Amino acid sequence: MSQSSKRPGAKDISELKARLGLKKSGPAAGKAGSTGVVAPPPGHRAGGGAIPAPPGAGPPPRPAIPDAKEDPFAAMNAMAAHGAVAAQQPIVYHDTSPVDRVHKRSHAVKFGLVGGALLVPLVLGVVVGVLSAKARAYNRTIEDAAAVRDDTKNVGESLISMQTVLQTGRERSRGSQSFVVGDSKLTAELGALAPLTPNIELVFRSHLWELDYDLVAGLLSFYVEALELNELVKGHTVASRDAEKILREGQTNMAAFDPRAYGALIEMPTAEEARAGKPVTMKIVQLGSPVCEGQTKPSEAGCGEAKVTGYRYRVDELGPWQIKKIVGPGDGSTFDPDGLVRLDPGSKVLQQLARGGKATVAEASYTQRIDRIYDRVVKLIENQGKLEKRLNSHANKGKQFTFFL
């Protein structure tokens, strides 16, 4: 078709084709124009089919591009679309979960190593501290055992001084087995003694709880009883001084009492009185001059070597005198009740009656107090010796290393 045969109003797009590189020049253009076939793009087969790429490799197949001579705008759009697809980068998915676990594990190991490095000195410090604290407690126990031992020894020396004073007072009594009641010298000597001074504060603040429980209990008991002994001695001296007058009166009454001057008269009820329920009684009587064997009258000079068979007696110190024989032993199983019975001069009740009620009570209280003091001193001296021996065994132990803490 000639140039003049173009439709009216049609535009000349040759210049646009030239700018787009679609217009061919020279022989190629003529050849193409003569055949009317567009040369296939690279990568196409001669028959017009695309060469398939291996699976998973190579770019996607190129879409068919319309002939620019027929529809240049469609060709431009197809070429632009193909370029956008070709420009897309392949999306690669990386599974990093094992790597993350490895990284996390490596971080945990690092943290564990750091924590272990910090924990080891801490644990070591705690262990050293505990061992050092135990060693210090052990060493303090040794030191306090020595201090308490020395204190108990000082108390023991004071106890021995008190025991010497008490033993001297016992020796002034008959047989040295008891104390003289109302011994004013002993009272004065006990009052002059210095009181025991056990260091209670030392014991209660000492670190002796690592020792055997019976040893600690013995120490506490020893110190408490030593303090109680001070109160016993103080109370005894005060009470003894207050009772001195009463005790002297009792001693005066006892010195004036002659148990041989008194006897007992057995009184047998009559048959009628016995049926009425009257019992056999014994009445205290005052005895006078004895009746010697073979005599019927009392002898004012006594019987000497002769046997006494009776006495002159009276039931009232202001009443008349009578004569009565002494009850004999009979055949060993019976006796004649019609007579007098002599009293035992060693009877305690008889002596107490002779001294009087107040003096008797004062003497009993004195004996009870002084015996209690003596027993307490003997007990404390014995316990002090045992405690000193056990404390000494602890005080002589070697000390433990304390890591300079």
Describe what is shown at a glance.
With 405 residues, the protein is α+β, with helices and mostly antiparallel strands.
Instruction: Report how far apart the termini are.
Output: 119 Å
* DSSP summary, beta strand count: 5
- Give the overall pLDDT as a whole number: 77
CATH architecture classification name of the domain at 129-253 and 358-395: Up-down Bundle
Ranges where pLDDT stays below 50 over 5 or more residues in a row are: 1-6, 26-36
- Which strand order spans the largest sheet, edge to edge or round the barrel? 4-3-2-1-5
Largest sheet: 5 strands, antiparallel
Q: Give the overall shape.
A: rod-shaped
- Helix percent band: 40-55%
> Structural class, judged by helices and strands?
alpha+beta
- CATH hierarchy, class of the domain at 129-253 and 358-395: Mainly Alpha
CATH topology of the domain at 129-253 and 358-395: Four Helix Bundle (Hemerythrin (Met), subunit A)
User: What fraction strand?
Assistant: 5-15%
Radius of gyration: 68 Å
The helix-strand sequence is HHHHHHHHEHEEEEHH
Description of the structure:
- This protein has eleven helices and five strands.
- With 405 residues, the protein is α+β, with helices and mostly antiparallel strands.
- Among the domains are: 163 residues, Four Helix Bundle (Hemerythrin (Met), subunit A); 69 residues, no CATH class.
- It has a five-stranded antiparallel sheet with strand order 4-3-2-1-5, with no helix packed on it.
- A hairpin with a 7-residue loop joins strand 3 and strand 4.
- Helix 4 runs antiparallel to helix 5, helix 4 packs across helix 11 and helix 5 crosses helix 7.
- The N terminus is likely disordered.
